[in-house]
Design brief:
The longest helix is centred in the first third of the chain and has 18 residues, at 22-39. This protein has helices at 22-39, 44-55, 63-76, and strands at 6-8, 19-21, 41-43, 80-82, 90-93. Helix 1 (22-39) crosses helix 3 and helix 2 packs across helix 3 (63-76). With 95 residues, it is an alpha+beta fold. It has a 3-stranded antiparallel β-sheet with strand order 3-5-4. A two-stranded antiparallel ribbon has the order 1-2. The chain is built from 3 helices and 5 strands. The chain has one domain: Winged helix-like DNA-binding domain superfamily/Winged helix DNA-binding domain (Arc Repressor Mutant, subunit A, Orthogonal Bundle), CATH 1.10.10.10.
Length: 95
């Protein structure tokens, strides 16, 4: 049986997070961190497009929704950050 452990995500503005499957969270998180590290800075829309291209065929959920959710969680945990004054907004690893 698949692992159905859940994680409660965090929100950078202190809003209520969502309860999602840990295995889905990990797939998206690992993809995002690898991609952000490889690019240095990447626009959110590019990150989302790459995630859809790479993961949609094997991921058992709506990739764009999970990308938003995990991105907010990683921001709240201080792992990634928005690049100030970028439009459309970009993200990078927090130093």
């Amino acid at each position: 049986m698949q692992d159905e452990t859940k994680i409660m995500t965090l929100h950078p503005k202190g809003k209520k997070g969502v309860n999602i499957l840990q295995r889905r969270y990990d797939v998206i998180k690992d993809f995002m961190l690898e991609t952000i590290k490889a690019h240095g800075e990447i626009s959110y829309s590019d990150l989302n497009d790459l995630a859809v291209d790479k993961l949609a065929s094997t991921f058992d959920g709506k990739v764009p929704w999970y990308v938003v959710t995990v991105k907010l969680d990683l921001e709240a945990r201080g792992i990634i950050e928005r690049v100030p004054k970028t439009s459309p907004h970009k993200v990078r690893m927090k130093t």
